[in-house]
Write a structure and sequence with these properties.
Blueprint (H helix, E strand, L loop, with lengths): L13 E2 L6 E5 L5 H10 L1 H4 L17 H14 L3 E7 L2 E12 L5 E8 L8 H15 L5 E6 L4 H10 L2 E12 L2 E11 L8 H4 L2
Parallel strand pairs: 5-6
Antiparallel strand pairs: 1-2, 2-3, 3-4, 4-5, 6-8, 7-8
Length: 203
Amino acid sequence: MTVSLPGSCWPNRLTSGSAPVVTLRPIRRRDVTAWRAVRVRNRAWLSPWDATVPPGGDGRPTTFGSLVRRLKKAAREGTTYPWVVEVDGAFVGQVSVNNVVRGSAQFASIGYWLDQQQAGRGIIPRAVAMAIDHCFVVCGLHRVEICIRPENANSLRVVEKLGIQEVGYAPRFLHIDGEWRDHRIFAITKEEVPLGLLARLDP
């Protein structure tokens, strides 16, 4: 297994060298048609895990264009790396590195979603591993965290495949599907994967 690791942290394009070919690239406004088609087709599959706005919270972007503008602004500021996931050139989901903290922490968290039609092919574990390796090797981060609802068996399988350890539990951590939801917290540091996280998938 090989993956390209560009010299700059962002923007960048990461591509795996194994079948299926998984590519991470920056989200763009012209993704709107593919993004909308996948989201509409997967509404029932994704809605139980989608972040929502609590009462009194700031509103979410109301159009895809405003969503992309917000993500690109955050990427320029270095707080978010918003990737589209492509498989053999087709749009199938997203992986986003969020809440990037520099200074003494050098920390970030990762979120992801996938087209149900692509589930079970190992795409998201590979995409997450690619993103984390890039964060450690190129972006200089030290720790990456993934927070998962206890009921989300598919997402829990991702961290299991990657060997990412559980480090805590956060009651009422995020507003998901209309309520404050508990989350299990998983995390990995650079020292744990000196050969890269992808090596755990392709030993």
